[in-house]
Amino acid sequence: VQLVESGGGLVQAGGSLKLSCVVKGYPDDSLTVGWYRQGSGNVREEVACVAGDDGAKFYSDAVKGRFTVVSDQPADTVWLEMNDLKETDTAVYYCADACTLKFVDFWGQGTQVTVFS
Predict the structure, then answer these.
(1) What is the side-by-side strand order in the sheet with 17-24?
(2) Measuring CA to CA, how many Å separate 87 from each of 12, 17, 52, 73, 111?
(3) Which residues on adjacent β-strands are paired with residue 12?
(4) Burial 11-40 (b: 16+ CB within 10 A, else e)
(5) Mean pLDDT of 38-42
(6) Which residues contact 47 (CB under 8 A, 6 or more apart)?
(7) In 10 A of CB 70, how many CB atoms?
(8) Other CB atoms closer than 10 Å to residue 117's CB: what's the count?
(9) pLDDT digits (tens, 9 = 90+) for 52-107
(10) 21 to each of 27, 35, 72, 73, how far by Cα in Å?
(11) CA atoms of 84 and 103, how far apart (whole Å)
């Protein structure tokens, strides 16, 4: 299994970024992808997720209403659309093969998002 993120960068507070995660090698057609981030506190936290079996989406309280997960199963790609970005969103963002941290087996390489005011 391989997950590859792209789309990070530098953005002013209030701006938007769109991250993508291309997945290869999942054992079935279920495209479950979780998004996580690790900021200066060095703790990796759950941000958002789409469950591949029923398409349910989950968001942390910190990003709810600002971030949206979009799934394109035929393309094996999941996007994280991030709007109204805040400095506190600055982190390395990772996609992974599970919606809960303790169940992750495979991680992407990470992409840096930096929000400045």
Answers:
(1) 2-6, 17-24, 77-82, 67-72
(2) 8, 13, 31, 31, 16
(3) 116
(4) beeeeebebbbbbeebeeeebbbbbbbeee
(5) 91
(6) 34, 35, 36, 37, 59, 60, 62, 63, 67, 80, 93
(7) 13
(8) 7
(9) 888 899 999 999 999 999 999 889 999 999 999 999 999 999 999 999 999 999 99
(10) 17, 9, 10, 12
(11) 30
Straight-line distance from the first to the last Cα atom of the chain, in angstroms, rounded to the nearest whole number: 38
pLDDT greater than 80 at residue 29: no
DSSP single-letter state for residue 44: E
Q: 């840096």: which residue's tokens?
A: 112
